[in-house]
Amino acid sequence: MTRTPVAQHAPHRTPSAWGSALRMLGIGLAVVAVSALGVGGFIAADLTLRVGQDAVDLEDAPEVAPPSLAAYPGEFAVLLVGTDECGEVSTQKLGARCVGEDGIRNDVNLLVHVSAEPRKVSVVSLPRDLMLEVPECTREDGSVASGSSAAVINTVFERAGLSCVVKSVAALSGIDIGFAAKLSFDGVMKITDAIGGVEICIGGTGIRDRDTGIDWPPGLRTVSGYDALQFIRVRKGIGDGSDLARISNQQQYMSRLAKTILSSETLTDVPKVLRLANVVADNVDPSRELANPVRLAQLALALKDVPFEEFKFLQLPTVEAPSDPNRVVTDESAAGPMWEAIRTGESMQITGEASNHGGVVAEDAPASPDAPEATAPASQAPSPAPSATQGVVLSEQISGIDLNQQTCSGGRRR
User: Fold this and answer.
1) Which of 81, 76, 75, 27 lies closest to 56, judged by CA?
2) pLDDT, tens only, 312-327
3) Distance from C-alpha of 258 to C-alpha of 380, rounded to nearest angstrom
């Protein structure tokens, strides 16, 4: 059976290189499984040393409960950042794309919030072209970066590092963010390989995108390594070709990766668990409070009984920036109730499309010619009418899915 990758964001600079919101939490599950086999002491000590080597202190972060071998008490939030850095492998593959870069951009920014009991998981994707207010930040070397009333979010990492991205997103959302992690191009490829690949679905007429070199027919594919990286970078070959369409396609990838990591097949496969834990330790740069395998296990344990319908992958609602048609700003009227629901731990009812820009479609896709036995996910039944028992009804301007929904890339050939 042929296997393939997922989609990403908008035009201009370097496309996003990141995939999965729950990937970092996967290492926590790995630690739990390994510890249960009686070899956790050595593994945990080794991982602590390696994960903590490049740990970053978060400025003005809230105090968090100390690590313990139990589910994390109360709510917590993790900011996951994907940068456009090229490593040894991606430089070989991307060539000129990795030469002459004028700085490292945080092209993917995912805010993962887990509520207190009863647990609900919200993953909010922030467009890389988002204009927002950036506060004054202290860099890792102690110097101070001045604030800005309006800056593009994917310039903040270059401006003042991971801590400043966290501080800016916390101010935007009103959510206290206690943990953060950064992943680069090479990390995406290696982590996807460690999990054994991710099966994704391509709909429409298939994806043909010259920028990423993808030319894939409709159907199911399992993507790993370089294919996975290109899938989450593809933009012009899906939907309306925008960064916002790419985000929805990345959410397809993230939801399927989350299901893979949380599946019994993964958690009972000890070699796979060890590979994942080791790759994450070598390829993810965490914040100081996240650089502890026991902490990661704590966070992972908080997810183990969350119903799939309470895992929500949402896209921040935006409108065109008045000052620049190539940028966007938050649609405050739509975003306000979403942020409030997340902060208060309310259930949310998605009324918008899986993608408001055609990045994904909720429909059957034919099997790939070279994989006739493959069948695409079934079409989703129409969403039920919102009711008071379904929690906060989100604006139709907010696109998204939950883990129970299956989507396929809204492919097109250009």
Assistant:
1) 81
2) 999 999 999 999 999 9
3) 19
* Calpha distance 223→230 (Å, rounded): 10
**Burial class of residue 282, CB neighbours in 10 A (0-12, 13-18, 19+):** middle
The whole-angstrom separation of Cα 408 and Cα 391 is 27
Contact of 221 with 200, CB cutoff 8 Å: yes
d(CA 351, CA 386) in angstroms, rounded, equals 8
173 token code pair: 């959302």
118-127 confidence digits (pLDDT tens): 999 999 999 9
Residues 333 and 375: their CA atoms lie apart, in Å, by 40
- CA-nearest of 48, 39, 37, 60 to 177 is 60
Q: Is 64 helix (H, G, I), strand (E, B) or coil?
A: coil
Question: How far is the C-alpha of 234 from the C-alpha of 257, rounded, in Å?
Answer: 17
342, 335 in Cβ contact below 8 A? no
**200: its two tokens:** 């994704």
Amino acid at 75: E
Tokens 């000890």 label which residue?
270
Identity at 386, one-letter amino acid code: P
The CA–CA distances, whole Å, from 184 to 82, 85, 109 equal 6, 5, 12
Provide the residue type at 64 as one letter: V
Least confident of 125-139, 297-311, 372-386: 372-386
